[in-house]
Amino acid sequence: MQMKTRFGVAGLIALSLYLPASRAADTHGRYWIYGVGRQICSTYMEARKNGGIAEISYKNWVGGYLTAINQVQDDTYNIVGESDFQGAMVWLDSYCKKHPNNTITMAIANMTAVLYPRRRRAP
Q1: CA-CA distances (angstroms) from residue 110 to 19, 99, 106?
Q2: Residue 120 in this model has a pLDDT that exceeds 90
Q3: 43, 77, 96, 105: which could join 39 in a potential S-S bond, CB 3.0 to 4.6 Å?
Q4: Which pTM was predicted?
């Protein structure tokens, strides 16, 4: 690699370290939601009551969301802190009973905001 190219690549890397993190959303902060995150809490509560594939779909979606938060959130090893996945589901159940018309995405976004101060930090 030529010296000029090395400095160019190094400069781009250094610049990328100083750019603020951006979210992949439109100018209004909206983004596409996949899977059961688009459903409302009352639908979630019905699936929890009935069990089966529908309930498993919600649990898988929630587990994926929490895992993604753990991966991308700075200084976060586990967003649920000293609790566990079951504790997160209990939190979600409680929220959804109070807010049956909110989406699951809204519910879990609220949960992660509440839990953030108590998160287990990266080792």
Answers
A1: 27, 11, 6
A2: yes
A3: 43
A4: 0.76
Alpha-carbon gap, residue 4 to 53, rounded angstroms: 57
Neighbours of 119 (CB within 10 A): 19
Pair 71, 3: CB distance under 8 Å:
no
Top pLDDT among 53 and 13 is at: 53
Q: Is residue 18 part of a domain?
A: no
Residues 62 and 111: their CA atoms lie apart, in Å, by: 11
Model pLDDT for residues 22-57, shown as the tens digit of each residue: 456 788 888 788 899 999 999 999 999 999 999 999
For the chain, the domain total comes to 1
Classify the phi-psi angles of 35: left when phi > 0, otherwise alpha if psi is within -120 to 50, otherwise beta. Answer: left
Percent helix, strand, coil in the chain, to 5, is: 65, 5, 30
